Amino acid sequence: MPDPEVMSIEVVFAMPEEQALIALEVSVGCTVDQAIEQSGVMQRWPEIDLDSIKVGIFGKIKTLQTELREGDRVEIYRPLIADPKEIRRQRAAEGKAMKKGAAGQAKA
C-alpha cells in the first residue's frame, strides 16, 4: 500500500549536450525548490542559479514556493541564447533577400 505521506515526482533539466530526468519520492507538501535540492541537480550543475532562472511544472511557469502534487514534473529552464523575435526578423529578411535574388535571375 502506498505511503500517503510520500508522492512520486520528477525533476528534469537539459543542457545542449546532456539531459537529466530524476525520479524522486518526496514528502507531501514538498515545494519546487525543495524537490530541486533533493534531486541533486544543483550539485551536478553548479552553474544553475535558482534566483535567476525560471522553473515550471509541465510547461507552466511556477514559483519556487509552489507546492507539488503527485506525478508532477518539475522543469528547470535555461535562459534563451537569442531573442526569438530577433531570430524571426533575421530569417524573414534573409527570405526576402533570397526572393529578390531569384526574381532577378528569372528575368535575365
Word description of this protein:
The chain has helices at residues 32-39, 41-44, 84-107, and strands spanning 6-14, 19-27, 54-57, 60-62, 73-77. It is 33% helix and 28% strand. The longest helix is centred in the last third of the chain and has 24 residues, at 84-107. The chain folds into two domains: 6-77, Beta-grasp domain (Ubiquitin-like (UB roll), Roll), CATH 3.10.20.30; 82-108. With 108 residues, the protein is of the alpha+beta class. The chain has a five-stranded mixed beta sheet, with helices on one face. The model has no long low-confidence stretch (mean pLDDT 86). It is built from three helices and five strands. It starts with 5 loop residues before the first strand and ends with a helix.
Q: Rg from C-alpha positions?
A: 22 Å
The name CATH uses for the topology of the largest domain is: Ubiquitin-like (UB roll)
Largest sheet: 5 strands, mixed
H/E series: EEHHEEEH
Helix content: 25-40%
Total count of helical runs of at least 4 residues: 3
Work out the number of β strands.
Answer: 5
Distance between the termini: 79 Å
Shape: elongated
* Structural class by sheet pairing and helices: alpha+beta
The CATH superfamily title of the largest domain: Beta-grasp domain
Report the average pLDDT across residues: 86
CATH architecture of the largest domain: Roll
Which CATH class of the largest domain is shown?
Alpha Beta
Weakly predicted, low-confidence segments: none
- Count structural domains: 2
Portion of residues in beta strands equals 25-35%
